[in-house]
Amino acid sequence: MKRPLFWHQGVFLQPQHFQWQDLHFQSLLEPFYGLMAPHFWGVEDLDIPRGALENSSFEIQKGRFLFSDMTYVTFPGNASIEPRSFDDTRLEGGKPLTVYVGLRKWKDKGENVTVLSSL
User: Is the model's pTM score more than 0.85?
Assistant: First the structure.
């Protein structure tokens, strides 16, 4: 993401200031470009280590997700995603395994973020 241009008193406007501002705005929209079709939400990027799958564990090494409520999640970044074991799942060779990535349900009262002391 391009850094925003910070204006202050005494800065004379030059063409490059407007160009930089435009680049910053475009970089804010960049995550949405890959998710516009067919729905305006979904998985933009996903990296799953093969070694974890061979050990009956699903782990996300890197990912970017836009949820239908317009919550944008990047991992690592603004999310915490724990590996999940699928030892108890009976897998048939060559058949897909459905995995869901979701958000914790919103609490009207209480904490809606991970508090470091509770890790």
Answer: no
> What's the full length of the chain, in residues?
119
Rounded Cα gap, residues 86 and 90, in angstroms: 8
Q: How many Å apart are CA 88 and CA 4, to the nearest integer?
A: 49
Inter-residue long-range contacts of 93-101, CB under 8 Å, 24+ positions, other chains counted: 97/58, 99/58, 101/43, 101/60, 101/63, 101/65
User: Hey, what are 26's tokens?
Assistant: 């475009």
Averages of pLDDT over each 10 residues, the chain, 119 residues:
71 81 83 73 88 84 87 85 81 78 80 64
In this structure, is the dihedral angle defined by the CA atoms of residues 33, 68, 66 and 49, taken in order, positive or negative?
A: negative
Q: Which domain does 84 fall in, by range?
A: 31-104
Answer yes or no: is 35 within a domain. Answer: yes
Overall domain count for the chain = 1
Could you tell me if residue 11 is inside a domain?
no
Backbone angles phi, psi at 41, to 5 degrees: -165, 160
With contact defined as beta carbons under 8 Å apart, do 63 and 101 qualify?
Answer: yes
